[in-house]
Amino acid sequence: MTVLYQNLSAPFDVPESELSHRLAERLRIPRARILEVSVERKSLDSRGGRPPRFVYVLRLELEPEIERALLARKKPPVTLYAPPEPLAPPPLPAPPPVRPVVIGSGPAGLFAAWRLTMAGAEPIILERGPAVKERSLRWTEFLRGGEFNPEANLLFGEGGAGTYSDGKLYSRGKDPRGREVIQILVEAGGAPAEILTDARPHIGSNRLPAVQRKLRERLIERGAEFRFETLATGLRRDGTGEAARVVGVQVRDLTTGETSTIETDTLFLAPGHSARDTYSWLREAGVAMERKPFQIGVRVEHPQEWVNQVQYGRSAGHPELPPADYHWVTDGDGVDVFSFCMCPGGEILPATEQAGLICTNGASRHKRTSPFANSGIVITVEPDRFGAGDDPFAGVDLQMGIERAAATAAGAPFGTPALRITDLIAGRVSTSLPESSYPLPLTPTDFREFLPAFIYDPIRAGLDRLSGRIPGMDADEGLVVGPESRSSSPLRIVRDREAYTSPSLAGLYPLGEGAGYAGGILSAAIDGMRAAEAWLVRVRDRMA
User: Fold this and answer.
1) Are strands 259-263 and 372-381 parallel, antiparallel or unpaired?
2) Residues near 65 by Cβ (< 8 Å), separated by ≥ 6?
């Protein structure tokens, strides 16, 4: 049998080929009695100013008598390895007579479709933006001074907003589907194999497009159909009240302008958190939505070399160490201020789908070779800050008001406000700005021109406290740009906790970040899989 050894710690520059010798010493057994060693998980620990170390979970094959003896001990920690049980539902007895429709090809929609095709369903996947190759061409052209395309940008197009992000694949949850998602990305999508063992895996914005394309090809082989540049514009429904149900989705072909209706009784809705026009036609269709807390703030940038120095100390610059990241939490006058979506060796990009609005986000390539590191510095805004009443769109209105004011303050199209961190803390406008990864103009701006006081004040106070705690945080090279306003959705499309369906419209399955049920690539993918599984159980029961 196979066993796991937890928490073998080794200096970062120790080759993995030597781990078996260290393990034998810890277990107090001859090296020859260990038949095989492989890395199950590894993480880098550079806390507390100590020299960086890798901490391993190792999978072992041992001689039977050694295994029995080790399992009988209380220490060191050796446990039986239990491979995760398959979670995929069994195939349907036959394809459903009406094809399910998936709106959105981001991680929630993509992995809902993956689950569906594994069971023999043949979904139609609608994506308002182009396929990833064309999307990349249009985005690159825009950054070089070309025309902005509201349907092919950092947010819309094959793969959703995650395609050009850092590609982080970790989540606080322990759902075993997370492991399955990563295996699918490697085995079917060609993602780098190290994400199978890295405790904080990422793919990188330069490799995600190819992964996305390969996953699409596999889905098509299984019977899925992709319709790109096809915008969902409304629902067709039958019945009223509790009897209301989906009978179709209205679409517009963005290349020809033609409109049509796709008949379906099942709609998996995974629009992403920036498809605000989708929220509008959902409201017109009477779909229940509600306010929810969301994160908002700014994005900070420093030289990566400084982050390495802070995190690694004397070991900074060693070729065996990856670009360092961080996770900061502090108090901002009674409000938690924390780092979000930290991108070591990354860049800051404009994340908007509309001219006249500006929002920033971070990304990094697989090798994280940029000389800059950036992170969101955000607070959580509670629904009572959205204003009186219970309008579910109040948070969206708050976002858009901030983004519009920021764009106006920046002046240049898709430019963004910026300050040196030390100037934001002091409440003054910078007279000059340091170098930045942001590819478009930066404008020194008083952030109070676009951030309400209940956001600005704790962010400023939090950065002040961090600068007192972390030497160099507010050095001249430290930059803050803003806003970071799309970290999560400010509304939730209501659904049943177990069935995953909308209580106001049978056959509608809201899922992912845009529906308010996920935060990041991995959690969105898991949410999509779980929603598809819930539907498949119902279909199988009907067919029985």
Assistant:
1) unpaired
2) none
